[in-house]
Write a sequence for this structure.
């Protein structure tokens, strides 16, 4: 199982992350599609090849082809949107009414349940640190009927995968430096 491979790659100094990863993979707060879409979108957002490769393999076993592509689309479109909306915030009130002007058609037609896509977008936006996007996606998923516990479960997946990616990068860097 690929989550098991990923847990095996987590260095001992990050044991808590390994434990969190195991428990989150067995989450009952989210549907299977919500859970594995969140895992895949968040893994892509970490920008860590090991994390993405291992999560993608298991996500492929748990998601339809449409959901798999939509999760990757959420990571990609939020990669763009999070930069643009953070910049609008940084630039201040003079930019409030400026139209973003970037294509983002996939948000309107993601090919999966809209609430699931929005949840994945929220997880990616959490990793990318875009307060505006996190709030906007939270509003959409909560209005669609997801609970705060479900939203928080997606945030925990994102947080844990980001921590796992960091720990693996640190371990790889230190191993290369001492070789």
């Amino acid at each position: 199982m690929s989550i098991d491979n990923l847990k095996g790659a987590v260095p001992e100094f990050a044991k808590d992350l390994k434990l969190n990863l195991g428990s989150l993979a067995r989450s009952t707060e989210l549907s299977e599609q919500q859970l594995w879409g969140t895992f895949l979108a968040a893994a892509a957002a970490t920008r860590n090849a090991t994390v993405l490769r291992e999560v993608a393999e298991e996500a492929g076993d748990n998601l339809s082809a449409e959901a798999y592509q939509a999760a990757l689309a959420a990571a990609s479109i939020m990669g763009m949107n999070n930069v643009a909306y953070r910049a609008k915030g940084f630039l201040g009130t003079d930019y409030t009414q400026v139209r973003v002007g970037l294509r983002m058609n996939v948000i309107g037609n993601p090919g999966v349940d809209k609430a699931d896509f929005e949840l994945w977008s929220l997880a990616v936006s959490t990793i990318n640190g875009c307060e505006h996007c996190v709030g906007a996606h939270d509003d959409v998923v909560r209005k669609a009927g997801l609970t705060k516990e479900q939203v928080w479960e997606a945030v925990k997946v994102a947080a844990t995968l980001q921590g796992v990616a960091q720990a693996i990068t640190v371990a790889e860097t230190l191993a290369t430096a001492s070789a």
The chain has a mean pLDDT of 96. DSSP finds nine helices and no strands in the chain. Residues 40 and 55 are 6 Å apart (CA to CA).
